[in-house]
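REQUEST ID: PR-0412
SUBMITTED BY: lab tech R.K.
PRIORITY: routine
TASK: structure prediction, single protein chain
INPUT:
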Amino acid sequence: MDYYAPRRDRLRRLIHDAGVDALLVTSFTNVTYLTGFTGDDSYLLVRPDGAILVSDPRYTTQLEEECPGLDLLIRPPGTTMLQGVSKVVRSAKVGRLGIEGSSMTVGLHGQIAAELPKVELVTTDGLVEQLRQIKDKMEIDRFRDAIRMAEKGFDVLRSTLLKEKTEKQIAAELELAMRQFGAKGCAFASIVAVGPRAALPHATPTDATVGSSNHLLVDWGAHDGMYRSDLTRVLITGKISPKLRKVYETVLEAQVAAIRAVRPGIVAEKVDAVAR
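STATUS: complete
OUTPUT:
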């Protein structure tokens, strides 16, 4: 069973409503969402009667494993992506071709227009993103897996924390621990910040040691190959001041109130307002 086929079916209804004959998906994230393919340099043409992924020989084996049953056009060596796209568009007899306005470059748009002068290029806005707004069970499960990997890695961090360890060492050990629990890597470059450096929005780990202050901020996440988690914790590594305790209690109260406010249909700004 092709798990991703129903997503493409739902997209076809949006394509029909947009008044185009087919949609050329060029966003890497959207291609993955619609096919399960995790490689790059590949575009997907979605038509009313099917879909075809244009890729290259590097990914032949990977495509067979990740996208069984999906029609493929593997570009021969020396053939450009533009030539591959032009071939599948002509074969499908597309008159009005939808393109992703938020991901297609001006340069690529010009190249396709020049290669396919009889095809009308129609800019669409967020068709695949509309589908992605509602997460299905598989996605939710993978989010939970990514959180679990991150939390287990953090447990290792806490159990091995020493005052002489540097921010750099902690970041490296945290990534290793998450990988040992199944993560493909970090969701983003981990932020490990000692003392006043914790106030920096995106602090880069340095040689500052844990023992140089009484608190340590860790902002990290795990990547499972498709989905990512994002967590933040502050560890008290020394004596907590009355001011910091008050800040902690205030933030905790806001967090609990926001979680209680979450329900189906509520918009994010209202949850944010509750916390503030």
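NOTES: DSSP finds ten helices and eleven strands in the chain.
REVIEWED BY: pending
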